[in-house]
Known about the structure:
11 helices, TIM Barrel
Amino acid sequence: MFPETRMRRLRRSEGLRRLARETVLTCGDLIQPLFVVPGDAREEPIASMPGVTRLSADLLEAWARDLKPPAVLVFGVPNEEAKDGTGSAALRADGLVPEAVRALKSARPDLVVITDVCLCGYTTHGHCGPVTESGEVDNDAAIELLARMAAAHAAAGADVVAPSAMMDGQVQAIREGLDCEGLRNTAIMSYAAKFASAFYGPFREAAHSAPSFGDRRSYQLPVANRREALRDALLDEDEGADWLMVKPAMPYLDVLAELRAESLLPIAAYHVSGEYAMIKYAAAQGVLDERKAALEAMLCIKRAGADAIITYYAQQVCEWLRNGEGG
Ligand code: PB1
């Protein structure tokens, strides 16, 4: 007890604080999302996500050469005319994402290439699977398509496929599909605990993937339900996921911490577009120190149990850490 016990003894100097540090953020923890568009020489800034651009595959070699994070998460953003009711363009072996995977792997064989597996960016209605006449997303039709989409990505060389559609049985269907194609070494990073969050807005602008009617509450998790999130995530583990994910990150650190305690699988946390934009816009208004706020957010997500963090800040954080401006 005080005065014999003085907690501030270990906070007195930078050296003492560093020695007692419990959590360390490294560049190796980070995954950089990437938006790929069709065509050539296309580099399109995304207004709602300052510093993030949509790129065409011909620009990926140069982009990848300078990439510091060890991994990238690829999202295809097709032209509107390529979209249809079932997202069939997402299944093509010569589609946007397989082409990007080949370009990335050619430029950087060492890079871990993860691909998002979902149909919302490829459907005219913007839902994550085909829609029935009653307006419901057809779960069992969706998981068959997702399995084909994942196999096309894996065949192109993706190291990991990441199903984000929140369909029941998607992980099992994808694992079976991959194994059936002999793609047994392709890992699955499941968006296992993905909430029906308000923090996805900027992404939907970036990927042109907002639902044209209704919302995603009939398949993404209720914000209020932590037990349901854990149950859903552990089902994905049982179905064969190699990674689990919690998404968004900062508002869901309780779920992340509890899932860390329940599962032995590696867990990624996704610092989503709205979380990124909040820091960006607050910093632009001068109310936050961008570097300190972003590094604090990443460190807190890691402290809560994330083994990897998907963040639009990945490259920037790697540069801050390399320049000794770390947490
Ligand atoms: O950064 C982000 O906001 C990610 C959004 C996320 C990407 N997997 C999805 C959120 C949504 O629009 O519901 C896309 C769903 N497949």
